[in-house]
Amino acid sequence: MPQEVRGVIAPGKDEPVRVETIVVPDPGPGEAVVRVQACGVCHTDLHYKQGGINDEFPFLLGHEAAGVVESVGPGTSEVEPGDFVVLNWRAVCGQCRACRRGRPWYCFDTHNARQPMTLAADGSELSPALGIGAFAEKTLVAAGQCTKVDPEVDPAVAGLLGCGVMAGIGATVNTGQVGRGDSVAVIGCGGVGDAAIAGARLAGAARVIAVDVDERKLRQAESMGATHTVDSRATDPVEAIRELTGGFGADVVIEAVGRPETYEQAFYARDLAGTVVLVGVPTPEMRLELPLLDVFGRGGSLKSSWYGDCLPSRDFPMLIDLHRQGRLPLEKFVTERIALDEVEHAFDRMHAGDVLRSVVVF
């Protein structure tokens, strides 16, 4: 029987979010209803609110979530009621050319729940953020979007793997393939950048250089494992990174801002044959111009990282285990725990740079 629960919606472009009653249908084939325990406030949710993703309002916001499977639809084998899960937005198909080639983290036909959730007031269909919509007491997802992890972990911590933290860690470990003894520079020390720093240390990098324009973020980056910091308001970051790496540049540079000027810095701050990883998300109008001879002459790799090139079924349990062993300080990403009706204020704090992550706790 369909259920009515509270959820946070974005009714229109740049309008304040509000808590509404939403209808969650019974799960159909291959679907699951999840009782959400915690959901992080991610910058992507703000993009949805601002109309930066698309104009399919109203949106049911929230996607960095963990919770317990309440019910599943017919033919569902991935999870069962009672499983503690982290939600992901890349339920792989298993059939596309990437999946058939053994690269499911590049799946080109990911899917979400087929049934819509709706507004109780007028029956309007909701567009769930990243196919999840977890600023709600319960949400409907494809069963493949649920990844079982150790139920002993704090849900407020576990849910952050669903987007930003996984994107940053994966950018270093999966996409950048950072190895022991490497030098790594991370440009942009928000949530994704700090996760990249934590991932670099986890991978055994000898030198991790954090670059930002905000002194507060640089101090936070140090707590995540940065060995050196560069305030790019006062110092040329390319020259600073070279100086800190014997004049050569870093082996891997992670660009976690998504702007042409910072990408150019990343390009020139890497060593010959080094790697640049773009994990910051640019806007459609941005353009980049580089001398083609420099692209050829510097060699190496220029990569983009999609969701940290992660495979949730492989990566989420592993990272939770590392956290439980004390080797990955995921708890440091949780700045504050808030109620469902505080999401709009959390966006304000995010915009001001006051938080790493606000987390809605149910």
Can you offer a commentary on this structure?
By secondary structure, the protein is α/β, with parallel strands linked by helices. It has 2 domains: 3-162 and 329-361, Medium-chain alcohol dehydrogenases, catalytic domain (Quinone Oxidoreductase, Chain A, domain 1, Alpha-Beta Complex), CATH 3.90.180; 169-305, NAD(P)-binding Rossmann-like Domain (Rossmann fold), CATH 3.40.50.720. It contains 11 helices and 18 strands. The chain has helices spanning 43-49, 97-100, 155-158, 164-175, 191-202, 215-224, 237-244, 260-269, 292-298, 312-324, 343-351, and strands at 3-10, 18-24, 31-40, 59-60, 64-72, 84-87, 118-119, 127-128, 138-142, 146-148, 183-187, 207-212, 228-231, 250-255, 270-278, 301-304, 336-338, 358-361. The strands form 3 sheets. Strands 3, 5, 6, 9, 10, 17 and 18 form a 7-stranded mixed beta sheet that branches. Strand 11, helix 5 and strand 12 form a beta-alpha-beta unit. Helix 4 packs across helix 5 (191-202). The two termini are 22 Å apart.
What's this entry about, in short?
With 362 residues, the chain is α/β, with parallel strands linked by helices. Helix content is 27%, strand content 26%. A hairpin with a 7-residue loop joins strand 1 and strand 2.
Which class best fits the helix and strand makeup? alpha/beta
Name of the CATH first level of the largest domain: Alpha Beta
Q: What is Rg?
A: 20 Å
Query: What string gives the helices and strands in order?
Result: EEEHEEEHEEEEHHEHEHEHEHEHEHEHE
Compute the number of structural domains. Answer: 2
CATH topology of the largest domain, by name, is Quinone Oxidoreductase, Chain A, domain 1
User: What is the residue-averaged pLDDT?
Assistant: 96
How many helices in DSSP terms?
11
What's the N-to-C terminus distance? 22 Å
CATH superfamily of the largest domain: Medium-chain alcohol dehydrogenases, catalytic domain
